[in-house]
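User: Can you fold this complex?
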Amino acid sequence: MQEKRKGRPLYALLIEHREIPLLAVLVLLLILVSIRVPGYLGANYMNILKGGSINMVMAAGMLCVLLVGSIDISVTAILAFAGAVCGKLMGMGVIQSTWMMFALGILIGAVIGAVNGVLMSYGKVIAIIVTLGTSYIVRALIPMEWLLGMNKVTPTELTQGFKDSMVTNTFLGLPFLVWTAIIVTVLVGLFLKYARTGRNLYAVGSNAEAAQVRGVPIDRIKVLAHVICGATAGLAGVMWLGYYWAIEKGSANGNEMFTIAACVLGGVSVTGGYGKITGVVIGALMIATIDSAIPQLQLGNSMITEFIKGILLLFAILLNVILQRIADKQALARRGI
Amino acid sequence: MKKFLSLVLVALLVLALTPAFAEGDSIYIGVVYKQSGNPYFQAAVTGFEQAAAELGFEFDHDGPDDGSSDGQIRIIENYIAQGVDALCVSANDPAALVDVLQEAMEEGIYVISWDAPVNAEGRTLDVEPASAQTIALTMLESMAESIDYEGQVAIVSAAATMPNQNLWISFIEDALANDETYANIEYVGTVYGDDEYTKSFDETLALLNQYPDLKGIITPTTAGAPAVAKCVQDEGRDVKVTGLTLASDMKEFIDAGICDETFLWNPIELGYAASYAAVALVNGDITASVGDTFTVPEVGDLVVEQATEVNENGELVEADGTIAYLNRLNTFNVDTVNDWVEIL
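Assistant: Here's the predicted assembly.
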């Protein structure tokens, strides 16, 4: 095996590991930023990791739904809803334990994800419409003043233990916020690579009919993918609350596009069947880098920074596509096609 | 069920109140706020209650469940039918209520907008907590005191397009440039968090990285303030934060010493002053023309001024209608913040 690899040309490596060109784009981006802001990476690597953690957790779940050829744009609504409910319950004294917060957040997310999945696969409604609907419903339910009092969670409602849980508490120098993202990433990665059900996600996404013939329960797999996505979004809600100590109706509104962008940047196919967790990690890091770097580039007002953000995103994805196309072409040429 | 119940209750209330006003000759005021159940407006109602006890008027208060203009219009129509003498309205939309309020004014009802103004053609007088200048200079003075009138100061604002914030910032910039008191304060600039938590957080982080000697951040937006304070705390920097904030958002950071003081207006005083304005108008003591004054106990003499607005160039220019400012802000510090966390 080792010997076989040795003789393989670079392009083959690039085809097998599509995240390599992406990594090159990330490095290029960091170099560009460092030219303008000397010492940028040294001062900011922790902020990039912290800032990217919540998006990474959601992107890991998003990867699962994208793999089965579905999509979920309700993730940030689930984030806000799960975070708000958990935070309010803590404020009311119902929950005291940090672990319970995480368990409940994941549960709430999984339930909403299951609703998404069932409506989408058994109700035969297009995923983007289903999740658009649930995202509106879920966000509308957030104020719940009749049940929870004020329509946002403030730091005073949280226990000190929970407030310390994400940023203050560290292990091997990394805050738990980052560790949570690492654990979720590794779990999803292992699941997709080694579990039979995980591999079935690819099968359903790349060729649903063939998968069905092989006896894969397509609908159930799709529901499962949405449950995983919802669960990660619910977890992200509790992480958000632990990081920022505040959550409200509009929290993270619109950020679902950056979750999807992290996946797409990472080479995940939006039509299903192709995508790797390693690519998503690099995609999420890239978005976190752009978010962290833009304010430091001192470009002036916010209209210009948003413009630059769009340019950087397009630049990253175009470069990635071009590098891949070159690699694909060479591979075809090698095979004499 | 809840809607039905409240309908029945409103119906009962109307039945109970109508005869009273057919007979009595005391002043009857209808108070309309943005949304029912909101603690901010519940606090304001206690201001109306206090004034009612002192001045001997009667009032009723209501706001739509959903915070809509339609709901407010229905409530106002009800009040008109009941024959109120004055309406005190915190508008969900400055333009949407104009028609119904003009109808009210034709019936001889005085319309006082408070907290959130109605356009000039739909009101008799607007009562607001503080002028732009008062807000700006209060924040600046507090910041200066926190940092001993020395060091670098930055501003984290809402969006770059927001006229209120931009006006306050221009007053702050002007004072920093021209007032000798602030000669040793170096203003390093304004960044915009767009009232989004994460963006405000990232922008603050960048400020802290860029200016290692930064001493203070003024954040004139309630949405951005908690993000700014949390970022300063996470970074463990000795930077003071002040601004316009809610008490509940900032208690944590006031207790932690990151904020010495933060500010917002006092909804109780605002309701109280609006009542005094309404009664002064009904009694004919004032006509809501420029230069009129009326006294609000504890608050002081309020002067009716020409309203102002910000034009396209960010300058303060005269606008239609008249306005009276309380020019008092509520200070939250370690001693007072606990009294306000449930309200603001």
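The first helix of chain B runs from residue 2 to 23. The longest strand of chain B covers residues 300-310.
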